[in-house]
Amino acid sequence: MFYYTGLRDQELAHLHWTDLNLKKGLVAVRQKTEVGFVPKDWEEREIPLHPELVTLLKELPRRNDLIFPSLKGSLNNHLLRLLKRVVKRAKLPGRLTLAGSWKNSRAQSRVQFALFRKELGA
Question: How many C-beta neighbours within 10 Å does residue 11 have?
Answer without folding.
Answer: 24
